[in-house]
Structures are given as structure tokens and as C-alpha cells.
Amino acid sequence: MTLTAPAGTGAPPNPPPDKAAEAARPSAVRRAWATVSPYAYIAPFFTLFAAFGLFPLLYTAFVSLYRVELQTPGDMEWRGLGNYAALFTDEFFWISLRNTFTIGVLSTVPQLVMALGLAHLLNYKLRGRTFFRTAMLLPYATSVAAATLVFAQLFGRDFGLVNYALGLVGVGPVDWQTGTVASQIAVSTIVIWRWTGYNALIYLAGMQSIPSELYEAAEMDGASRWRQFLHVTLPGLRPTIVFTVVVSTIGATQLFGEPLLYEGSVSGGISHQYQTLGLYMYEQGWGFFHLGRAAAIAWVMFLLIVVLVGANALLARRRSRKEAGR
Hints:
This protein is mostly helical. It has helices at about 15-65, 80-90, 90-120, 130-135, 140, 145-155, 160-170, 180-210, 210-220, 225-235, 240-255, 255-265, 275-285, 290-325, and strands at about 65, 75-80.
């Protein structure tokens, strides 16, 4: 028996059971969609990452355990760690590893120091600073092929503008392509030119996030601009500096376009004097057709990047803890 409210009380009658279930169903659907929808929104990213990031990484690790030739990619012969063993006994691998480290240091350290100085200048109220900030990105927007070909002409031994300028001050011509140190400096100069402005804008964005009250307080205490830079700007930029160091380290480890186009040789010069790991991998895979060996080099580069990034993060965390304990 269904009870109904007496007349005049104003209470609505109880709905039938089937209508109550229909009224509750939309709310259950909404709750389910609220739970599932965040995963649906990020699903395209993870799908693309799995297809173009994770799968190639895992498949490269799989191929590195086999002998695979470019002419016959379907014929795979199990080698286990043989490709890695052959890699570590190849002197050209160690030469390319050393070149990667030296070119990385020669390009990363001056690049970040110059970017920090330029960002500090652009942080002040200068006339036309919007133009200068925009101009900072022009080298980054330039094609790596065009930039490298122009710098290859500038560093020419006989008719290069750099040797001409050195001759004006009494320095003899430098062979920027066959000399080991000279060629590495030339390649590093291209990297510095392309990426200094990009890092400068990153530092500039970090500087503008530092509260102006800190600079005002330091100025009231009599601190010069140099003291403000050391004790206000640098501590406030520490996370940004760590980020640029990590990104520059990854870029230096994967350096490929500049040394390849500098002389147009995958061997990195006559005596492999500026061959990086990226060039060495390309030479093994598409020059000598050893895809298994190239896959092993790719995984060595990946593990090297993980170690370097982990070391940077560990040093940054240890420094932060030390300063927090003061």
C-alpha cells in the first residue's frame, strides 16, 4: 500500500520506484564520467608517447641484442651483449665519447655564462629592449644547416673571415677543420651562437619572477648591482639554472647536425677529431649498415644522458639541503 501525504500539507507524493531509478541514473552516469574524463583527456598524449617514444626505445633495446644489417633487416642473429662488447673495444667509440664531452663543455659553459649576462642586461629598463629580446631568438630560429654552412665559410683556412681577423693582430692562419682543438672550438662556436639567446630568454623570464622588493631591500642596504646579482639574482635563478644545465647537457650528448654539416663528413674530420656519439651512431648504422651496433650506441647515449641528468639533479639537491641547513 502506497502512503500519500494528506491534502493541504504541501509534501510531494513519493515517486514510483521505476521513476526514481530513472532519476538516479543520470547522476550515476555523471559521476562515472567525472571519474573517467581526466584519463580520456590525457589519453591522446600517452597514446602518441607510447607509439613514438616508448615503443622505439624498447625496440631499439631489442635490436641492440642482435646482429642486424641495413640491407637485410629481416635476418636477425642473436648476439646478446656482443654489440656492446664490440663497441667498448672500438677506439673510435672512445674518441667520439671524448669529443662529445669536450665539445659539450666548450659549448655549454660559455653559452650559459653569456646567456646569464645578456639576461641580466635585458632585465633593466633599456631603450628598445623589446627589439633586443626578439633579436635574441633569431639565431635559434635560423636553420641549423644554413648557420653551419655560413660558419664553415667563416672558419675557412685560406679565405675565412676569422683567419683574416686573426691576421690583423699578427696571428697566423689556423686550420679550423683538420686541427683537433681548433675544429672542436669551431663546432662549439656554432652551438653557442644558436642557443645563447634561447637560454638568455629563459633566464630573463626567471629574473622577472624574482620579487622586486628583494632588490629594493638590497639597494637600501647599500648593495651594488654586482652584489645584488650575486646575492639576489643567482639564488632566485637556481631552479632555472639547473633546468638549462640539464637541457644543455642532453643537447650536447645528442649533438649531430652541426658536426655533420660543418665539413659534410660522417666521420667527423680526417682523424675523427670532432666526431660525436651522434655522428658515430649514424656512421655505424647508415655508413657501415650495422643497425644492431647503431642501436647499442643509441642505448649507451640514453644511459649516459640518464647518468648525467641524475648527477646534476643530485648535486642540485645536495646544495639545496646544505643551504637549507644553514
